[in-house]
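Consider the following input, taken from an annotated entry for CubicO group peptidase (Beta-lactamase class C family) (Saccharopolyspora antimicrobica).
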Amino acid sequence: MWTLGVPAKTRRVIFRTLVAALALAAPLPPAPADIDATVQEYLRSTGLPGAAVTVTRGTEVLHAAGYGRTPDGEPITERTPMAVASVSKSFTALAVLQLAESGRLELDGPVRAHLPEFRLADPRADRITVRQLLDQTSGLSDSTVHPFTRPQPGSLAEAVASMRSATLVAEPGERWEYHNPNYQVAARLVEVVSGLPFDDYLQRHVFGPLGMADSRAIDTADELPPSARGHLLVLGGAIAVPEPPAFGGGSGGVLSTAHDMAAWLTAQNNPGRTPIASAAAITEAHTPSPASGSYALGWSVGTTDSGERMVSHSGDLFTSTAYQALLPDSGYGIAVMTNTGLAHGDATALADELIALMTGQPAQPPNSALPVIDAVLLGLAIGAALLAARGAVRARRWAASRTGRISTVLRLLPLLVPAVLCASINQIVGALYRGRDVALIQVPYLYPTFTVLLVTAALGGVVVLIARLTGLARAVST
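Applying the prediction step yields:
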């Protein structure tokens, strides 16, 4: 017998002891009220205007709610569609894995075998595999395919066609480099192999089976609905602004809700018990290759501050951010969508606080220095404007005191420095972002008050230059 002759009373004592030990080993999940309080305090302390938050554990949804308001003043609920930005890559990767599982494409076969329209100027591109698109080791780079400074495509087919003059910066499979067009090619691959537009494919094979009724995929920033648009924060206050023009089909175009992301996280954290993919496919999506380092197929692999294994991906637009994380050992899933942009990183910061709550770690306080920095930069901009006005008023006196031509030219040239910086600031910012492609229109979204200072200095320098040249011309004519 399984009891081995142990009396019933003793068995009950042993059972209760085991239950108590398991309870100590696996702490109870935080109460919804604790999650709610954490989110509310974050919004209060940072000025974040709106967020959608989901926390799951195993197959249970612990919390799914919206907070604050959209840019047009509507309350955010658990059913409000918001942009998930580059979190979209995990959806694209899953779509590709589904097609691979069904035998319709080969993950380690060349992309061109299934997508003949994928032609680059570099012959090495013929060897790029489907997997290398997904783990970002294709050899494509922002330095050769410019995601933001190229003319923006209107469809996935146009996005792939626009790459025909591109070259590679490395052999396929040699090194990892984050590059949005990798996933635009992957999404186009899904369209061609399945015969369905990308959004239709996701509706039929991902969103529909999971009950994600309010989720969909778009291609361009101008397709964002009002609820999915966002803000800049200046001096701690939220300013509603449109997302700058950009193409994000396959790489950043999914819209979802707190309610729907709960279903997505549950599916990812319960491989083998989901209608969208096998356990092997989910595991493969979460497993990096040696060449890709910590980047898997639309997911990054790392650890929490407590040392627990974590599978995650962030998403950044210029007016909104998103973050998703899975803690496979404890079964938690967290998704956060916020309507402030890349410059503030609110989705990741809020998710970090929630992960700390799940794992019993102290949370890091939000960055409170940004309003102070804004105030300093705006103060400098006012100072630059006043100095420019003073220089323009005194230009005639300055011109009258000039005698040498060379020294006069040398004194005038520094006035052009801010204008030169202003015209090339996107290239400087791109270098700071490790070679990423940055369009000039995107810089004010990243650094709004610094941009005000730089533009003020540039205009002021030009005004003083014109005033001084006018003064010199008058001095010569008299």
